[in-house]
Amino acid sequence: MSLAIGQPAPDFTSKDQDGNPITLSEFRGKKVVLYFYPKDSTPGCTAQACNLRDNYKELTESGYIVLGISPDSEKRHQNFISKNELPFTLISDEDKSVHELYGTWQLKKFMGREYMGTVRTTFIIDEEGKISDIIEKVKTKDHTAQIL
Question: Residues annotated as region Disordered (predicted)?
Fold first, then answer.
């Protein structure tokens, strides 16, 4: 499934790092940065998370809620958050159901090997729950600038 700008963002309920259910539609009326990333504590994902952390005040002042999502467990998310002092919520999608909804679980190639994995993608969702932007070529060290 391929999502496009202007479409409603698929609603979902999944668990955050503390095991609390998070439902996307709860954030209606706010702008949401929903960013899909491959794995906690890897160099690119850490750079991306830290860039968002370092510019978090600017993002929240612009009215954004930041939600990161990966196939990692709640426990891994807790470790990643405390190690990097992340001020935003991370969603655990171990069964990849949310990845499937957003089309971010795809066949990838790395060093001649093919495997299924997360395609790093950020969806900007407006106050009405519609996709206002899709960032597919994510610059991990400069991601906030891409969002704003």
Answer: 1-20
Domain 13-147 sits in CATH 3.40.50.720: no
> Beta 121-125 vs 31-36: how paired, if at all?
antiparallel
* β-pairing verdict for 31-36 and 64-70: parallel
- Percentage above 70 pLDDT, the chain: 99
Angle value at C-alpha 66, between 122 and 148, nearest 5 degrees: 65
Mean per-residue pLDDT for 90-114? 95
Q: And the tokens for 32? A: 């949401």
Which residues carry out catalysis?
Answer: 45
Distance CA 22, CA 35 (A): 14
Contacts of 6 (CB under 8 A, 6+ apart): 130, 131
